[in-house]
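Design review, sub-item: ligand-bound model
Attendees: FS, YL, KQ
YL presented the inputs for the flavin mononucleotide complex:
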Amino acid sequence: MPEIFESTNLAGIQLTNRLVRSATWEGLADEDGGVTSPLVQTYEQLADGGIGLIISSYLYVQPVGKQTPGQVGIYSDALLPGITRLATAVHERGGKIVGQIVHCGGQADSRTNGGLHPVAPSAVESPGYRETPQALSRMEIDEIVYSFADAARRLRDAGFDGVQLHGAHGYLLAQFLSPSRNVRTDEYGGDRSKRSRFCLDVYQAIRSAVGSGFPVLIKLNVDDFMEGSTTEQDSVFLATELAANGIDAIEVSGGTPGSGKLGPARPNIVQPEDEAYFLEQAKVIRSATGDLPLMLVGGLRSLDIMESVIDSGAADYLSMSRPLIREPDLPRRWLSGDRARAACVSCLGCFLPGHKGEGVRCVQKDKEA
Ligand SMILES: Cc1cc2nc3c(=O)[nH]c(=O)nc-3n(C[C@H](O)[C@H](O)[C@H](O)COP(=O)(O)O)c2cc1C
Ligand code: SF4
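KQ shared the predicted structure:
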């Protein structure tokens, strides 16, 4: 039986355990998206805490694709020295790091991106967002594909161990896949195959830029849980195509900020049955993609549940976000024999200081201080 605290090789990345820090916006970059010392310290703490793999926060590939205050950018070679600091800090502590890249599309925000109007496959509002995006021209689509490829190349040059495409949570890649948000009538809209095309083009462009030896992963929404939007059938189609074309791993997620209680980061994970809330979706992707490495994220809080996920064969890696905001040293605590569940109470309070520009942090921990 596979175990959580055992070494594995993920597409050439040697990992000391099966625990993953799922991508988490920290809100600590400077105005231009540049890396700052407090941000480097966050990664140092995570690496010291013993997590097997760190996935960076979502790094925006074009300024117009920026969403949140303090989001880190990867849209220019000028940002390379800062990005390199992150990889070096993690490696010096024996950790591994994959960079997540994103274009927020219709979920970008002109208040944080320097006044640029958000763009999307179609001029369709993203539920929960105030700006109706402008529909992308064919040429703009090509430019975004190149921006993703350039961003992946920068990660490789900065010494990262791999790249993860953010294909989840309603951002641009997910917008193209969604029948309700992509109503294009050209080769990028229409049936499932056409709606998958943008993501596959981005993946192929990245592969050409970084070569076959650099791991390329994707975080994928299996279901948007939103009327008329992406369903399991859409995601299975895309996952199967990506697997056939050599993607190295899929992290299974779901929901968008517009999905209400069925969003990606659900509140009130209290009982064991609240945990692992995308487990059924992981099983669906597992049956479609065979032995392709899968990561499961969403509400994982206790070792017993995680062990049962691994035993079930539904996923090979266990990703967490909020538990590591509260306890960056959680893996080390568990490894030392203290098996108590993660202290995070899933209140979602950590977003608030982030939106105020103070950086994401655990507000419950503040109360204890
Ligand atoms: C503060 C915060 C920031 C997040 N930032 C990202 C991000 O940059 N990229 C991403 O894919 N998901 C992001 N997420 C979602 C998490 O990666 C994860 O999918 C979700 O929180 C469920 O996992 P959890 O129950 O372990 O928190 C974020 C979540 C939180 C709470
Ligand atoms: S504020 Fe703290 S306890 Fe609440 S969800 Fe965030 S990390 Fe967990």
